[in-house]
Each structure stands twice: as structure tokens, then as C-alpha cells.
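Title: Comparing notes on inverse folding

I've been comparing how different people in this forum approach sequence design from structure. To keep things fair, I'm posting one structure and asking everyone to reply with a full sequence. Here's the target:
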């Protein structure tokens, strides 16, 4: 009895396996998700659609899948809203995904705000009339560090007889102070002694050139007065506003005589063109920024020397 029962169970299991295999095979062959076999009248019969109705059946199945997907999304959203009750692994995953979504949303919003700012700046700049500088260097104004670090290059620029070296009086006073050095020679270190020697060399160079009445060298006060000699070079700057860099920049602005009738274009769409015959020579970053804000051309001495030699 037990053996016969086991045999019947094995036979039923084999039949079920055959039906399952046939079902999967027909689903893959015809693209149908509904069962292709149905038990009717004591036997399995085919319920596959006829070929002419297969397209409609597939379309209806796709529509049903989309509808099911939408319903599933709705259920997921509802689950996310109500998922604060029980603590489980799925809930932690959902919270992590939600936090990641919020972080991405903030990042996208930040990028959008940055893009809006850029577009606003571009729009404002498009409405502002552009300005162009036409540079024809005639006057060169070096700062104090130029005479200390690049005295040989300034000598070459002076000897080429193409430019006029304008020395602000405040620069000469600074060189005098550096040349004197500290009160005690024994306290000077290596760099301080080197700085003092370079300053003395620069002062001797200037004094010799002015004694020779070199026409390609000028001394200029902070008020724009030109001096033919630097024998008396003390200047009262107590009433002057700004620091020494501002006084050097004021010497450059002395050669920037801008008149509206000379640079204003006839058409409102044309850019403003300014002519500059002066160039500030400095390595100081702060002084360079100040010069550019006042539309004063500025270069470091090695770069300008290379340009002059190539020109």
C-alpha cells in the first residue's frame, strides 16, 4: 500500500512538472503571461489567443503592466510616508534612499542657483559698455622693488632710448631709507645686508644719471611736479591720502589725461577706447590690482623687457 501511494505521488509530481515546463515554454514562445493551458472537461486544453488577436492581447498586457507599475509606485510612496512605525532593514534602506534623494535635490538646487548667478552677471556685463586700452608705452614708472631686484633690466630699458623712466620721489626716499640700513651694522643679517647693498647701488645709479642730465629719466613728485635734479628730494606727504603705493599710482595717473571727447565713441554700442602711454612696472600684487582698477597698464619688469627687445 505504501509503495503504491509513493508511485502515485511521483506520477502526479511528474505531470505537474511537465505542465510547468510546457507553460514556461509557451510563454517564452508566444510572449504571453497568462496560462496557455487550462483544465476543462477532465483534460488540459490550449487557451492561447489566435494569431490575428495576438497583437491586441499583447497591447492589453503591456497596458496592464504599466498600470500595475503605477499602482506599485503609489504603494511604495504610501509605504515611505507610513514607514516610521516599525524598525526593519527595509525601512532603513528607504530612509537611506530618502536621505540620498534629499542630498541630490539640494545639490541640484545649489547648481541651479549658481547658474542663475552666472547668467545674471553675464546679463549685467552685456548691458555695460566694454572698455579697451590702447597701450603705446612712452613713460615707465618702476616701484621701489624694481630698482632693488631688477636694476640691470631697468638700465637696459633706459639705454635703449625708447622709453622715459619716471622715478616717483617717494621711491627715491624709500631707497634712501633702505640704503642707510639699521643703526647698528652688527645687527644686520644676511638678507638685510644684501638689501642695503642693493639699495645703495640703486641710489648711486639714480644720482649718477641725474647728474648727467639724462633726458630719458625724470623725477616726479606726488603732486605731479617734475624735477630735473634729486639733490633736494625731501617731500612733505603728511597731507597726502593713502600709502606709498597710492602715491606711486598717482604718478602714473599724472600721464592719464582722459577727456570724454577723445575716448567716447560715436555709437553707443561701440566700446570705449582709452589711450595709455604709461606703464607701471611692479611685482607687487596689491599695487597691480589697484592699477588695473584705475585702468593703468601694469607689467613686471622681466616681461616688459622681453616685449621691448622683441619689438
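Reply #1:
Here's my take.
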Amino acid at each position: 500500500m505504501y509503495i503504491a501511494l509513493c508511485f502515485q505521488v511521483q506520477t502526479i509530481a511528474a505531470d505537474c512538472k511537465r505542465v510547468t515546463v510546457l507553460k514556461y515554454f509557451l510563454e517564452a514562445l508566444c510572449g504571453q503571461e497568462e496560462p496557455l493551458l487550462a483544465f476543462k472537461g477532465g483534460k488540459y486544453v490550449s487557451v492561447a489567443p489566435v494569431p490575428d488577436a495576438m497583437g491586441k492581447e499583447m497591447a492589453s498586457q503591456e497596458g496592464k503592466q504599466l498600470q500595475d507599475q503605477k499602482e506599485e509606485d503609489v504603494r511604495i510612496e504610501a509605504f515611505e510616508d507610513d514607514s516610521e512605525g516599525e524598525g526593519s532593514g527595509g525601512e532603513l534602506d528607504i530612509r537611506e534612499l530618502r536621505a540620498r534623494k534629499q542630498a541630490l535635490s539640494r545639490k541640484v538646487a545649489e547648481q541651479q542657483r549658481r547658474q542663475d548667478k552666472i547668467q545674471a552677471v553675464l546679463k549685467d556685463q552685456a548691458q555695460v559698455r566694454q572698455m579697451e586700452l590702447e597701450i603705446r608705452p612712452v613713460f615707465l614708472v618702476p616701484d621701489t622693488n624694481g630698482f632693488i631686484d631688477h636694476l640691470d633690466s631697468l638700465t637696459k630699458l633706459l639705454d635703449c632710448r625708447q622709453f622715459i623712466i619716471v622715478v616717483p620721489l617717494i621711491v627715491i626716499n624709500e631707497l634712501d631709507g633702505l640704503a642707510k640700513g639699521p643703526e647698528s651694522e652688527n645687527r644686520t643679517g644676511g638678507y638685510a645686508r644684501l638689501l642695503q647693498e642693493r639699495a645703495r647701488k640703486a641710489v648711486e645709479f639714480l644720482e649718477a644719471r641725474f647728474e648727467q642730465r639724462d633726458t630719458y629719466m625724470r623725477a616726479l613728485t606726488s603732486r605731479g611736479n617734475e624735477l630735473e635734479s634729486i639733490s633736494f628730494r625731501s617731500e612733505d606727504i603728511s597731507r597726502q591720502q593713502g600709502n606709498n603705493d597710492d602715491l606711486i599710482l598717482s604718478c602714473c595717473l599724472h600721464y592719464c589725461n582722459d577727456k570724454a571727447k577723445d575716448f567716447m565713441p560715436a555709437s553707443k554700442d561701440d566700446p570705449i577706447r582709452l589711450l595709455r602711454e604709461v606703464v607701471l612696472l611692479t611685482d607687487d600684487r596689491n599695487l597691480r590690482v589697484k592699477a588695473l582698477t584705475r585702468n593703468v597698464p601694469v607689467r613686471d619688469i622681466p616681461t616688459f623687457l622681453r616685449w621691448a627687445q622683441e619689438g
